[in-house]
Amino acid sequence: MAWETFNKLKKSLQDNGLDRNSPVSSLVNSSSFQPDAGNILLSSAETAVSNLTFLCNLMHRCIHEELEMVPLESIAAISRVVLISSSPILYVLHPTDEGEQRDHLREVQAANFYSEDMYLKRAEKFAVLLDYKEERRPRSENPGQKITDTAMLKRAMDYVIDHVYGSDTDSIKDSTGEEKIAWMWNVWSGQAHGLYWPLMRPNRTGYVSSEIMPGEYPVDLNLLTTLTWRAMETLRDACMPPTSNQQ
Questions:
Q1: Domain limits of the chain?
Q2: What is the mean pLDDT of residues 173-191?
Q3: Can you give the chain as a three-state secondary structure string?
């Protein structure tokens, strides 16, 4: 099963690093790449595998322990965080042509994961849209402190995990819980779909702001699920040598 595959892959990465015969290692070792580009790819691969393993284990628990109180929005929120962290390597590995992969890696390198400040501004716009100000409060209290997209994601992620694993699962149904899930769902929608990474960033050709507006939950969940499983397959195939590539 998928979660077993990713647990094995995560352990292998922790013990030995990426397999030297894997496609990712081959790309990184290509003489056409600068060292920092390879580091970006390797770091993204390791983070993505770790996060995907967590997501697989959560799905496994929901299925086998029948955690009926866990809303789909919680799974989707975690899936979105996983895809955000995975987006650079997914974008690089998506093309089958090695030349295109190199072009994509160079673009990731040049973009340097894009601007954290732009992500923060997008998040603030959605916070205003939903009339939800709690996540913006730390910045007003500490105007000199830089709040990164990673920190904001972690806070929202901690909230979701607390309600998934905590004893008071009913509280997720109250208005504050729904607002937090909805906020996280929508703020990061445009940045989450890793296979379309360059088109889903603000101020890029082909970017459509309506794609990250609230209200399309069912459609978005289907797309998110499809992309999450595709991300799992892509990373498994990229990080494991062909002989070890098992379901």
A1: 2-244
A2: 40
A3: CHHHHHHHHHHHHHHHCCCCCCHHHHHHCCCCCCHHHHHHHHHHHHHHHHHHHHHHHHHHHHHHCCCCCCCHHHHHHHHHHHHHHHHHHHHHHCCCCHHHHHHHHHHHHHHCCCCHHHHHHHHHHHHHHCCCCHHHHHHHHCCCCCCCHHHHHHHHHHHHHHHHHCCCHHHHHCHHHHHHHHHHHHHCHHHHCHHHHHHHCCCCCCCCHHHHCCCCHHHHHHHHHHHHHHHHHHHHHHHCCHHHCCC
